[in-house]
Structures are given as C-alpha cells and as structure tokens.
Design brief:
two-stranded antiparallel sheet, binds zinc ion, 12% strand, 14 helices, 422 residues, binds L-rhamnitol, TIM Barrel, eight-stranded parallel beta sheet, 12 strands, globular
C-alpha cells in the first residue's frame, strides 16, 4: 500500500477514535510495550535438536501435516525466526523448550543439561533484542514413553524428571539474568491414563511432591518466574490427567506460582478469557498459552476470532498487564511455518491493539449505570471501527510489511531457502 494512503487512512481513523474519546497514539505506544513470547516449536513441529532417535513429540501433543522446509538444525530455526521477526511489529520474546538445546552434536540427557547448552541461544537472543522464556521438556523421551513423568510410580524415573526440572530452572534464571528480563519457565507434564484409573489421588500427591522438590530453591523473581500448566486430556490420556486445572489452581495459589492457562486445555465450550480475572487476584501472575483449539486441543494457528479478541480485551480491560505474560502455543505443519508464526503473532498483536482502542472508562461507566442498551450499542459499533488503519500505520512505523505484503517475502524465502532443505 502507498505510504500516503496509509497516513491518510490513519488520520481519518484517529479522528473517528478521538470522537469516542480514544487516543490512537496512546494505544500504539502501549502496544509497543507488550511483548509476545513466540514459541520456537512452530518452526519444526515440536521436534527439537536432541536427535536421540528423532521420535515424534508424543505426550499427547501432535503436529499434523508435512509441509516441506521445516527447520532441521539450530541455524535453520534461528534463521526462520529472524525472518518471522522481520514481519512482526514490536519487540518480543523467544519461548524455548529444553529439547532445543545446543549440544554440539553430543547427546546430553535431560537431567544433565546446563547453561552451556543454551548459551548460544542467549547470545543469539541478545543480538536480536529478544527476552527469553523457557520450558522443561517432559515428552519425546524414553523415560516418558509410558505416559508418566513427575508423577511416575517409579522413584528413579520421578527423580530423573525432578532433576530435569531443577536444571531447567537454573538455566531459566541465568537466561533472565543475562538478558535483563525475567524468564518464565513453564512446567507442563503429559502424565495421565488412557483409561479409567482406580487411584486418582496418589499420582497427584506424587506430582505435588515432585513439583515442591523442583521449586525448593528460591530464585529472585527479577530474573526468573515459575509457571505451571494444566490440561484436560491428551491423546492416549483421555480418561485422567494428573495435572488438571483444579490441581494446578490449588498448587499455584498455595505456592504462589504463575498459572499457565492454555486456550486449548479446557472443555470445548469453556474459554480462558473468563478465567483471567477469576484467578488473577490470587496469583503472582499468569502465563497465557494463546492457542486455537478446533474441536480438541488441536493447536491451530491463532487467528483473529472472538475468543482471541476476548482474551486481549481481558488483558487490557483488567489493567493487569504487568501480571500477565502472553505466550503463543500452536504448531501447524500443514502450511508454511513462517507464515503460521507470522499469522498467529500478528493476530495476537492486532487483537491487543483492538482492545487498546476501546473507550474502556466510558464503557465501564455505562455498565455501572445499568444502561445495558447503550453498552450493547457501543460494543457493536466498536466492531466496525477503523482499527485496520491504525494497525497498518503501526506496521509501517515499525518497518514491517503492511497488509498482506509480507506473504511475498515468505514466498521468496520459501523458494530460495525452505524448498532447498532436505
Ligand atoms: C501441551 C501444552 C504445552 C506444549 C508445549 C510444546 O498440550 O500445551 O504447552 O504445547 O510445551
Ligand atoms: Zn500450552
């Protein structure tokens, strides 16, 4: 789109918003300060770089599709992320899984990882002005093959995974320290039963004990934050998940950990947008795994749908931005992976912008006055306000492509680079 058209459209939009009492400049200034934690695992279908036997992700999560060109090495993944970042406005974060370690070609087991295996990621993140978040990897491993990790009945296996958790916190803390911004290290375990269990209690007790051991060392919250992620079910764990929502609600509140709400980890009609304000008062913070479930925890690419907008509105309207960490969690292997990242991340940022462009105080006043007729009028009207002109202007100002212009660049990258990968 021509530059002057973008400016003209923005000037008109600015006036429309101003008549509602909304300052577009203030909104975009705020937007530029909200980082989105971009997950590394969209780039290679949750494969990682351990290369033990190149197992699939397992643990009840599954990337489907075989679009060519997935990153097969750390260099390729970094290159793909750099390309993606060049198409996304603002400064963001990289969310890395432990299985993406840089082991220099020598196998290192999960309980033996150290900062040395992630130093090249930290250096790279620094060069790219990225903060980093981290995740222990409790899947794709022989010791996770029977579906249990931290709640495993075998003490030896449990200890192995506890050691992994402890190692990951140390790594996360060092990341946060070096990058000058607290790393959120998020624990998700796939533990559960395919069929109806007899004992639902003992595995939960074991999980509690394992987590307590992992978290026993106190780490400065300026460099590191712990999060725990619940789930409803997984493939092969349909009947019982040890780390259910209620389990982690209780755990996070009692231990004052961040609770991670993944949009795909609840019953199909349940939404995380309504949970944000329900839990935030009782927690030191929240981590969101913004995802898109389609009939199940399918991890489709995030798009600008009603729930994404509702999530963004809750983040902004609640005024709790400082306590909410926004992470993405999707992995679609059936489309170009750089496009997947770009679509999902741009949609997240766009949703935040739309939420920032609401006359929140005015809407709250109308609601408090009991004028639900006007409330509905305004909420309906806001849906067709010219936010796209503000978005285009924001992209241009941040030197990233406007509109669909970015797809040409992705095509070119696919032709020159992705298509040549084995
Ligand atoms: C799995 C969880 C978890 C993973 C990542 C890869 O259901 O959502 O967050 O997607 O750790
Ligand atoms: Zn998740």
């Amino acid at each position: 789109m021509a530059d002057d058209k973008i400016e003209q459209a923005y000037t008109l939009a600015k006036q429309s918003y101003s008549s509602l009492g909304v300052d577009t400049k203030k909104a975009t200034d705020m937007l530029s300060k909200i980082p989105v934690s971009i997950h590394c695992w969209q780039g290679d279908d949750v494969g990682g770089f351990e290369k033990v036997g190149a197992e699939l992700s397992g643990g009840g999560i599954q990337a489907t599709g075989n679009y060519p060109g997935k990153a097969g090495t750390i260099d390729e993944l970094r290159m793909d992320i750099e390309k993606t970042l060049s198409l996304i406005p603002g400064k963001h974060r990289l969310n890395l899984h432990a299985c993406y370690l840089d082991n220099g070609g020598k196998h290192v087991d999960r309980n033996e990882i150290g900062i040395e295996h992630f130093q090249s990621w930290i250096d790279w993140a620094k060069e790219n002005s990225l903060g980093m978040d981290f995740n222990p990897t409790y899947f794709s491993h022989p010791k996770a093959a029977d579906g249990f990790t931290l709640s495993h009945p075998d003490k030896g296996i449990r200890n192995f995974w506890i050691e992994h958790g402890i190692a990951c916190r140390k790594i996360g803390a060092e990341m946060g320290k070096q990058l000058g911004s607290a790393t959120v290290t998020n624990v998700w375990v796939p533990d559960g039963y395919k069929d109806i269990p007899v004992d639902r209690k003992d595995p939960r007790e074991r999980l509690t004990n394992s987590l307590d051991k992992i978290f026993s060392e106190k780490i400065d919250s300026k460099v590191h934050l712990d999060a725990v992620e619940s789930k409803l079910f997984g493939i092969g764990a349909e009947s019982y998940t040890v780390g259910s929502h209620e389990f982690y609600m209780g755990y996070a509140v009692s231990r004052q950990k961040l609770l991670c709400l993944d949009a795909g980890h609840f019953h199909p009609t349940e939404v995380i947008s309504d949970k944000i304000s329900s839990v935030i008062e009782f927690l030191p913070g929240l981590l969101l795994h913004v995802s898109r479930p389609v009939r199940w925890d399918s991890d489709h690419v995030v798009i600008l749908n009603d729930e994404l907008l509702a999530i963004a509105q809750e983040i902004i309207r609640s005024g709790k931005l400082d306590k909410i960490h926004i992470g993405l969690d999707f992995f679609d292997a059936s489309i170009n992976r750089i496009a997947a990242w770009t679509i999902g991340t741009r949609s997240m940022i766009k949703a935040l912008l739309i939420a920032l462009l609401e006359p929140i105080e005015k809407l709250k006043k109308i609601e408090l006055a009991g004028d639900y007729t006007q409330r509905l009028v305004f909420l309906e009207e806001l849906k067709t306000m010219p936010f796209s002109a503000v978005w285009d202007f924001y992209c241009k100002k941040n030197n990233v492509p406007v509109g669909t212009d970015w797809i040409e660049q992705v095509k070119e990258y696919e032709d020159n680079i992705l298509s040549k990968r084995l």
